[in-house]
Inverse folding.
């Protein structure tokens, strides 16, 4: 597990150099120390991996609050949509919600508007993962928010439960799960990444 997100290395190095210069010139030392510490906290990662052994488990891909759980149409099929708003102070590393093959990945560059604006969902930078697991089709859409200056995401062929997929400074993650998936969380609940979100039904 990474203690610091890869996309944050350049920012931390930049603020680290500024902090050293501040000490060298004996100017604004406390300010640049504070900025350096904030950058470390912003790009921090998890120390532990999920301990779940159930192959049907679905975990939360990011720290945040459940905004919505409901039925939705996705790619012409009925599914259960779970919307998670990434918390500002939460860990921004994005994790795979299950062990699966990634059948498709698409990313579209865009703006970084506040997600409270109606135009943000269509204009903001976004990406989507399509997962295939034991006959189940799962999708995860990532929408960047105003604190994300880029979506730095990886596209492996397959993932294990809780593998790192990238970093999201702010924004939303939408999970599109099979309609018969068992959801173990409720709207308004605050989740930690890698915690249990639900379970897939076993295919007969």
């Amino acid at each position: 597990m990474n203690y610091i997100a890869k996309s944050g290395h350049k920012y931390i190095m930049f603020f680290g150099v500024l902090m050293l210069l501040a000490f060298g010139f004996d100017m604004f030392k406390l300010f640049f120390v504070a900025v350096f510490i904030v950058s470390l906290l912003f790009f921090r990662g998890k120390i532990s991996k999920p301990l779940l052994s159930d192959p049907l488990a679905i975990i939360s891909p990011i720290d945040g609050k459940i905004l919505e759980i409901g039925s939705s149409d996705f790619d012409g099929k009925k599914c259960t949509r779970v919307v998670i708003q990434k918390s500002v102070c939460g860990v921004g590393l994005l994790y795979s919600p299950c062990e699966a093959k990634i059948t498709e990945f698409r990313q579209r560059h865009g703006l970084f508007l506040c997600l409270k604006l109606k135009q943000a969902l269509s204009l903001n930078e976004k990406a989507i993962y399509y997962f295939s697991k034991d006959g189940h089709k799962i999708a995860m859409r990532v929408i960047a928010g105003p604190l994300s200056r880029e979506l730095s995401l990886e596209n492996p062929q397959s993932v294990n439960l809780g593998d790192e997929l990238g970093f999201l400074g702010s924004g939303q993650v939408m999970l599109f799960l099979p309609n018969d998936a068992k959801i173990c969380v409720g709207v308004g609940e605050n989740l930690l990444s890698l915690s249990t979100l639900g379970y897939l039904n076993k295919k007969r």
